[in-house]
């Protein structure tokens, strides 16, 4: 694996690969890699000539400074895991390489209603920060394929919109990969490392709630489903940001079940100080 820290050097290297008509797959991450991340890398390797993984804990996307400070960093382990996965290139930039000056703070991206619902509502500024970093990464890496996890459902929609805002929808194809889970169903997340044993056991309630919605969607009202799952979560000591059942394409909340409509259930909740999110396609 080749390690790049400088954006210009990586960009030049990938330009060379493009000249040789090699196809590039890109997996952006914030590190503390787990099997979920590695599944994206594997998929990229199987579909491209070269795979680039980036690790950058992006300060611009943390609306909570404490969450940023406590974000796990396991760089040596990550490098080992990437080497073993067969990933060709790791981009590990220092912050000044991504944000050489303060001008990024004045950028705005028009992502429409995604800015003010669900994650957008509960983490003000978060998606603007995601767009700031990903727009830079896409310019540096210029991939053919971008691999993202369905675990961050709304983020996938935001980044599809970003690709369109950049006028790059013909060049860059978004590939959304399934959520990898722990044996009990808890979605893998770098933040799980911050849970103690008891919290980890309780955290399975998110998956149980999503399954409950999926299994009862045709029998109960959406209102009752939301109330019942909120109770399941609260009983397991979660503080809920949202439990939502939404149209899978627009993310607009749905209030009655319609079997012809594709819908997704989404949950965000705090276990202690750790904020977890997850979602499931219901039909
Ligand atoms: P992160 O490092 O959390 O920013 O995640 C980097 C990428 O990995 C994002 O596209 C995530 O959606 C994806 N990802 C995170 N957790 C999982 C998971 N459990 N399964 C599949 N992909 C994931």
Tag the structure with descriptive keywords.
alpha/beta; 9 strands; 10 helices; 2 domains; globular; single chain; 283 residues; Rossmann fold
Q: What would your notes on this structure say?
A:
The chain is α/β, with parallel strands linked by helices. The chain folds into 2 domains: 2-177, Rossmann fold, CATH 3.40.50.620; 190-278, Pantoate-beta-alanine ligase, C-terminal domain (Pantoate--beta-alanine Ligase, Chain: A,domain 2). The protein is built from 10 helices and 9 strands. The protein has helices at 7-19, 35-47, 65-69, 75-85, 95-98, 119-122, 126-141, 153-165, 197-216, 222-235; strands spanning 2-4, 24-29, 50-55, 89-91, 145-149, 173-177, 238-247, 263-271, 274-281. The strands form 2 sheets. The protein has a 6-stranded parallel beta sheet, with helices on both faces. Strand 8 and strand 9 form a beta hairpin. Helix 7 (126-141) crosses helix 8 and helix 9 (197-216) packs antiparallel against helix 10 (222-235). The protein is globular, with a radius of gyration of 19 Å. 37% of the residues are buried. The model has no long low-confidence stretch (mean pLDDT 97). The structure holds adenosine monophosphate (AMP). Adenosine monophosphate binds next to helix 2 and strand 5.
